[in-house]
Amino acid sequence: MVMSPAGLRNKNDFAGKDQQLLPQISYSVYLLGLMVTVVTGSTDGIGKAYALELARRGVNVVLISRTQKKLDEVAAEIESKFPVKTKTIAADFSKGRPVFDIIEQELKDIPVGILVNNVGRQYTYPMYLGEVPEHELWDILNINIGATTMMTRLILPQMQKQKRGAIVNVSSGSELQPLPLMTVYAASKVFVKSFSDALRYEYQRDGIIIQHLSPLFVNTKMNAFSHRLQQTSLFVPDATTYARNAINTLGKANTTTGYWAHGLQYFLTMIPPVWIRTYIGGLMNEIFRRDYFKTMPKE
Ligand SMILES: NC(=O)c1ccc[n+]([C@@H]2O[C@H](COP(=O)([O-])OP(=O)(O)OC[C@H]3O[C@@H](n4cnc5c(N)ncnc54)[C@H](OP(=O)(O)O)[C@@H]3O)[C@@H](O)[C@H]2O)c1
Questions:
Q1: Taking the first listed entry, what is the main subcellular location of this protein, grouped into a coarse class (predicted)?
Q2: pTM attached to this predicted model
Q3: CA of 99, closest atom in ligand 1
Q4: CA-229 nearest atom, ligand 1
């Protein structure tokens, strides 16, 4: 059953019902799954794949994204495939502060076990800072930094009270060095890494797992600027493959790429010094920028 846009038919529907469904995940994550998982940015890409994969493992999910129609479709897909419950919350994180009052109200009394701070915004294509439209920069700040911070702040008190919970912060391999032509996006992901690592110190004593997840390229619409990244391969997995692997690391690794082939790439990437990596990152983005100009329709 799909919950109405306004929310759950009965908030208690979520609590503690699906014990028989869950033995596929580690025990600590299983216990969290008995509560509810909240996934931001869950109507496409990694977030949608995360929601579907968690539901496949028997976990109830709250889907938060900006478009109600897409939320309804994902909720319907989940509930038609798996015996779990969903709730949808339409919220545009680029709007900043006001959306969190709505989310707080909607999540009131729902026992959240896992929060996946997945929502993220990238440049439309690799650009020099002066070329990036101002609204895109505000979106990146509000979504990548603002939503991650404020969703965490909103959920933490109840996890602290429950003395358990897990927060997955989706960063990016772009955090590994400065990344020219994606300068602000990469810097926002450095924030996510630092935020996660410091938060772990603050809250792990309350039984809260803080996972910093740092994927490299995944074949999603975020990378539509280059045809090269729209072809699934070992190193550019589809979102489902990525999510399946990443979810297996929850409760086992505090900081991870989430996917073994990305782990290999991470290892090789970290061998040269930062200035070389920065230079190579810039060259790579010049190529993606040319791809965009070659294949994308002119505005
Ligand atoms: N794809 C990669 O190669 C890659 C690599 C490293 C890290 N990441 C990170 O992984 C996360 C997910 O990326 P993705 O590639 O799956 O992205 P995606 O395919 O573009 O999906 C983004 C999701 O976020 C939602 N969203 C976008 N703007 C929103 C807003 N203002 N308010 C609420 N929801 C919004 C989208 O909703 P709509 O469906 O309405 O658009 C969609 O559901 C991001 O944090 C990204 O930085 C991705």
A1: mitochondrion
A2: 0.91
A3: 32
A4: 3
